[in-house]
Amino acid sequence: MGPRNSGKFHGKHNFKGQMPSKFPLPLAMWDFGHCNPNACSGKRLERLGCIRSLRIGQKNKGVVVTPNGKSPVSPADRVFFDNGGASVVECSWAKIDEIPFSRIGGRCERLLPYLVATNPINYGRPWRLNCAEALAACMYIVGYKDEARLLMENFKWGHAFFDVNEELLDIYADCKDADEIQIKQKQYLEDMEASYREQRNTDQGDIWTQGNLNHKPVVADNDTSSSSSDAESNEEVNAVKEPIQNSEDSQQDANEEEDDDLWRNVVRMKLKT
Ligand SMILES: C[S@@+](CC[C@H](N)C(=O)[O-])C[C@H]1O[C@@H](n2cnc3c(N)ncnc32)[C@H](O)[C@@H]1O
Predict the structure, then answer these.
(1) Are 64 and 110 contacting, i.e. CB atoms less than 8 angstroms apart?
(2) Where is this region: Disordered (predicted)?
(3) Nearest protein CA to atom 6 of ligand 1, as residue
(4) At 99, is the secondary structure helix, strand, or coil?
(5) DSSP symbol at 243
(6) What ipTM was estimated for this complex?
(7) Which of 44, 96, 134, 176 could staple 129 via S-S, CB 3.0–4.6 A?
(8) How far is the CA of 153 from the centre of ligand 1 (A)?
């Protein structure tokens, strides 16, 4: 389905010359060409005329949603959004270290707070959103909720992003600034972790609820790609399989993997409820 103009945008803004014709707000990306064009959400938005490409060396005066950010996007960034819209870095997560962050970006570089991806490549994975999800999250948090939904109508799975994240997105959109978002996010994660641990203890305590343990399947936990043939998902798997260089790295890897496992389980629990 192609995007429609919602006609609901009445913000005070300064978008002259930046608006792609097919979407009511200016969206942009630096495209590093790492990804399979058929599986890439940024490329899809570009084909649909919803986003424009920026050159390396060109800065953006809107909200730059980037792993290079230091604080989360918040409603306080609305003024930046209304000056230049939002932009993302279209690249592979596995090659993020190769991005020349000093040559892209802008004055308002922001992380996203905790949210869960629902795209087919990273479904259920926290923090690692694709470009469309990242832009939609940014729009929603700064107050363009209808436009965020409109953008995601371009993807078959787009509604799932709001099914899973709406409660959190509303919490963030009600915050005053980045500090409040950090507090709310921390609270939410602590509550979720506590209820996950409680649930796990209950399940483990009640052995009769687990069936015949000898017949339990072995679950490979790190598999993010399994059935997907997409280039980026294969990169993700390769990234996980890279050799470990020294014991410090190996300790850090182990800690990160433990963290990842915990959050993946927490998310699984959340998706079931
Ligand atoms: C790494 S690319 C992967 C894009 C993917 N190939 C696709 O199909 O859209 C995703 C981009 O979305 C933004 N993004 C996603 N999750 C983010 C987060 N938690 N914090 C900041 N930026 C994020 C960043 O601009 C990031 O570079």
Answers:
(1) yes
(2) 203-273
(3) 40
(4) coil
(5) P
(6) 0.99
(7) 134
(8) 18
